[in-house]
Amino acid sequence: MYKKIGLIVFLSILVNILQQTIFSNIKIFAINMDIVLTFIICYSLIREDVECVMVALLCGLIRDSFFPGIFGLNTIVYLVTAYILCQIERKIYKDALLIPMLSAFVFTVLKGILYYAYLYTASIQFEFVSHFMYVVPIEAILNSIISIIVFRFVTKIDTIKFMQQEWKF
């Protein structure tokens, strides 16, 4: 069990480090892909409810520690994403690469909507129309493309023996 927890913590930290160091510098049409969101989506398509929510919470808290002005925004978005995917993951066929790609696209759009809702309720000025017309579609496409690699990585992690152990509370 400790190996499983250690691997989850390590992967959460690693994905956030990769996002902050490498993927924040890779810009396509001046837009970054969100490897952390993509990791949570792919992880939620494969693993159990409790584990997915824990990964989303940990990734969100780590990611939010880089943005102190709006602390909690990424955590909320990641938790909502993990929760919704955990509710529907039993009902979908996950082995096709189209599922993680489509999920990454849809949940990136949902992320854009949740960001706007949060910023609107916090009375922070935000140009919703231009963001939703130009940034969100490109980010959704980029996340869909990267989800192929991330999904294969998460699938390989899922085959490790200690990852198959049930949670004991």
From TrEMBL:
GO terms for cellular component: plasma membrane. Coiled coil: none annotated. It is a multi-pass membrane protein. The keyword Cell membrane applies. The keyword Transmembrane helix applies. Keywords: Cell membrane, Cell shape, Membrane, Transmembrane, Transmembrane helix. It is found in: Cell membrane. The chain crosses the membrane at residues 6-23, 66-85, 97-119, 131-154. This is Rod shape-determining protein MreD. GO terms for biological process: regulation of cell shape. It holds the Pfam family MreD. Belongs to the MreD family. It comes from the Bacteria.
